[in-house]
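Intended use. Records such as the Transcriptional regulator LacI/GalR-like sensor domain-containing protein entry shown here are meant for training and evaluating sequence-to-structure methods. They are not intended to support clinical decisions.
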Amino acid sequence: MEVHLLDAATVSLPPGAQVVVVDSDAGDRYTVVDTDQADGARQAVRHLLDLGHRTVWHLTGPAGSFASQRRADAWRAILTEAGRPVPELRHGDWSAESGYRAGLELAAEPECTAVFAANDQMALGLLRAFHERGRRVPDGISVVGFDDIPDAASFIPPLTTVHQDFTAVGRLCVRAVLRQIRHEITEPGTTLVPTRLVVRASTAPPPPA
């Protein structure tokens, strides 16, 4: 699930309105509650590197998405810190169809043995493309998603993915609004909700060279 917000300059709020923002880097101006996008991406990439993959390719989301940018930045940083090659980004639009199109391209890359997709729907498209092109998952290529949507465990194979706790995000948003109403929050800032990697059957060590 991805939340898209209008730029602050285009939003008109009544005087005195209490505001809590989700999925944003506006913590210098507002109270923000967000998933720890960067740490989720780091967990995904480190998992694949720890399995023995030389590098990890990334299928990112739309350019205008804060979450997409945070995940891509963390992917790039982990590879750079590890001294690994940083492959060219592949771009999607959160849909399974865009994942499928990117997967057809990646399937033709013999050096591509691991892909981190910025959401589970694009990961689903990758799985279809790899199946059609004879790239077996996970024996020939590993795939990690992000979100842990309810159907992720029913993909073929069941998808390794980063779990977001949307319930916790919602609960903290409500709590923050109530604290604003009671004047207990007077300064802007960001609260990050931790993520966790859920390892299933779509990841494995790379095939022998």
